[in-house]
């Protein structure tokens, strides 16, 4: 039978006293750990580059593409409004997050000029402050000439550099997320070493995404409106021509002996009535298509925009100093405890 050990309170107190006495004897070790814990975070903070964060918050309001009673009314005249919303699932869920960080959107933003008439783009600014331009074997510029209405076509080398910038920005500089996992409020955050780049990139990233989003969501409906508008304009010209033609056949004092003289006027009037009926139907379909286009156009409401001066996202020296000092003291304490129990 194992012998039971009796713990005496006096022995426990005596052990604690001996341990704290040992701690006092190891003051230099604890102080060394505290100094290391204090210095290392401060050195790391000093070596860190600035990180200016610009955030843009917006609400995405989806509109129903079914059309409700409008779709039923349109079906009576042979117009399928419901099918115009077939791409509505494109932006459901988290697809919008992937589209914001897609290559086509980011490269479009990089190709926008900074300001003024210099033609210097955000891509040129990024090459400067990121140090990527210095590492390139051949210098490259994406500046847009002042006389050019559109940006010139890129070379293969320029496209390669753009792709490298896209990969770095998508992984390190841009983050997109919902404020609420079940909500429709999104937040775009751009972090970089340059305030101008962070602010402009966050704002223009939302602008380019909005343009792309609306174009894709409404492309079918807009094409239908454009087709019906062209058809309506064509019929209107024909109707006007028929009206002038019918008026030219009107005889003020016809000879009753020649009844055939009224035939051209009757034919012209009949053609005019037919064209007018077709034109009225096309105009009605055109108005319903415009209503469908408005109902499918999403609303993106801007909540917050970045403003100067941007806050540096790095931790302050004071915070890192206190955190490092505390971590050093804790490390020194457990190190002494380990050495004490190992004796």
How many strand segments?
4
Order of helices and strands: HHEHHHHHHEEHHEH
| Largest sheet, strands/sense/barrel | 4 strands, antiparallel
- Supply the number of helical segments: 11
Fraction of residues in β-strands: 5-15%
Q: Calculate the terminal CA-CA distance, rounded to whole Å.
A: 30 Å
Mean pLDDT: 77
Strand order of the largest sheet: 2-3-1-4
What Rg, in angstroms, do the CA atoms define? Answer: 37 Å
Query: Any idea what the shape is?
Result: elongated
Helix/strand/pairing category? alpha+beta
Helicity, as a percent range: 55-70%
Low-confidence parts lasting 5 or more residues at pLDDT below 50? Answer: 65-88, 256-261
Explain what you see.
By secondary structure, the protein is of the alpha+beta class. It is built from eleven helices and four strands, in the order ααβααααααββααβα. It has helices spanning 9-25, 27-47, 69-75, 95-100, 103-110, 122-130, 132-135, 156-173, 195-248, 263-296, 317-341, and strands at residues 52-61, 174-178, 185-192, 299-304. It has a four-stranded antiparallel sheet with strand order 2-3-1-4. α5 (103-110) crosses α8 (156-173) and α9 packs antiparallel against α10. The longest helix has 54 residues, at 195-248. The radius of gyration is 37 Å and the shape is elongated.
Could you give a short description of this structure?
The protein has 343 residues and is an alpha+beta fold. The radius of gyration is 37 Å and the shape is elongated.
Set down the secondary structure blueprint.
Elements: H1 9-25, H2 27-47, E1 52-61, H3 69-75, H4 95-100, H5 103-110, H6 122-130, H7 132-135, H8 156-173, E2 174-178, E3 185-192, H9 195-248, H10 263-296, E4 299-304, H11 317-341
Antiparallel strand pairs: 1-3, 1-4, 2-3
Helix pairs in contact: 2-11, 5-8, 5-9, 9-10
